[in-house]
Amino acid sequence: MIHKHTLPPLPYHPAALEPHIDARTMVLHHDLHHAAYVEALGRVLEAAPPALRKESAGWLLRNLDQVPDALRTGVRNSAGGHVNHSLLWRSMSPGGGGDPAGLLAEAVEQAFGSCRKFRARFEHAGSTLFGSGWVWLVKAPGDRGALQVLTTSGHDNPMSDGSFPILLNDTWEHAYYLKHENRRPEYLKRWWAVVDWTEVARRFARASVPVDPVRGRTDAPAASPHASAHAP
Fold this sequence. Notes:
By secondary structure, the chain is mainly alpha-helical. 45% of the residues lie in helices and 11% in strands. A hairpin with a 7-residue loop joins β1 (133-139) and β2. The chain is globular, with a radius of gyration of 17 Å. Residues 210-230 have low confidence and may be disordered.
């Protein structure tokens, strides 16, 4: 069966993150920018082998070496734009903010010294990234992989290198320019007020379990295609 890539709805009203992220930015970001990547992915996959047209966007990012050379850049850009934005919407919520708790907080403190130091590292990485891209908190590859802050250019996703995304923020200007103009550091600092740490903790818990990006946990029954499309 061909996998139909669709634009997921925002999990909250576009104005729900006010005053930290304005409604106009959310509408343009989701309805125009994210939608464009979904449409582009569908177009580029029209020329792909039938087997690849059955896979989720997350699977494609983890297996770019199986995508024909002529299509690889288009798939990487459009699938990355689709998956990254899908993860971003779920990383935020109207009831967000505060600090991580439990095992996630312990892992952050072990990796960075404190939550405050982690935030400073994350903000610095995002502020100093040249051009457009993303800033991430990831679990490095391997069973004992530590938490790391890294950046990617364009719409590259660290899943392509074997890392597991825990948290991300968008540093493309369309994510913040209407409200913050060219003040990216200001945007990154104020963004913490909408971070959904419950969702971040869920991803952190999944990062310790072998995961198939299409089917979810390797020891669990196959998930629905919709639920697995934007794994993790």
